[in-house]
Write a structure and sequence with these properties.
The chain is α+β, with helices and mostly antiparallel strands and 220 residues long. The chain has six helices and six strands.
């Protein structure tokens, strides 16, 4: 296993979409990640939402149609936390985000902690998807930090539709069980790193969204 490689949801997703593109961006770095206009816009929206939810700043005019949702989130019971950086060791123990023993990193856009319950929100500015994998992982990471949490809900807030996709209310046992789904996937990622095996995989990103020019599917 590559000892110094720390995974995240985005890196795992990148590997599963196309091992060759993942390696070019994160391992060999022959085609480093290039920020797109869409990702820059996403960062700006995240910052404006954080300013509204944590600092109470008004949303800019182009985002003010989200005010109703932001107001409800802010008013919900509990302590509100913005942009929480989490990092775990391979033993699922909290560690520093850039410490030598970090194995997994994640960032929660917005968290509400209330007694033994938690709500984690991930703002999404892109195309709506029908799974909750990322917020499930954030919940699993968070309970490693907060031993008093017994119940949790994860949700995506889709800015294009102003709607939520949620995990529903999960017990601590449910949340702890999330790891069993992730570990085989992460194992395949680390096996690929150890073996240096990164075959290309054609997908929807190839034609317009991939800068891995050495791939046979590039631009197709």
């Amino acid at each position: 296993m590559a000892k110094k490689f720390a995974w995240s949801f985005s890196k795992l997703e990148s590997y599963e979409n196309c091992p060759k593109k993942f390696a070019a961006e994160s391992i060999t770095k022959t085609s480093p990640f290039t920020e797109s206009e869409a990702s820059r816009y996403g960062k700006e929206v995240h910052k404006r939402f954080e300013d509204r939810l944590i600092l109470g700043k008004k949303l800019p005019l182009d985002l003010r149609h989200h005010e109703g949702v932001m107001a409800r989130l802010k008013a919900a019971k509990g302590e509100g936390l913005g942009e929480q950086k989490l990092a775990l060791t391979i033993d699922l123990k909290p560690t520093g985000y850039f410490d030598a023993d970090v194995w997994l990193r994640g960032i929660i856009d917005y968290t509400k902690l209330a007694d033994d319950r938690v709500l984690v929100i991930d703002h999404k500015t892109g195309k709506v998807k029908d799974n909750t994998d990322q917020v499930e992982l954030m919940l699993a990471m968070l309970i490693c930090y907060e031993p008093d949490i017994e119940w949790g809900t994860g949700a995506y807030y889709w800015t294009k539709t102003k709607k939520f996709t949620t995990t529903g209310l999960l017990s601590r046992d449910d949340i702890e069980g999330i790891w069993s789904g992730y570990m085989p996937r992460v194992g395949r990622l680390y096996d690929a790193i150890e073996e240096g095996n990164f075959p290309p995989k054609q997908n929807f990103l190839c034609k317009n969204y991939c800068n891995c020019t050495e791939c046979p599917y590039h631009g197709i």
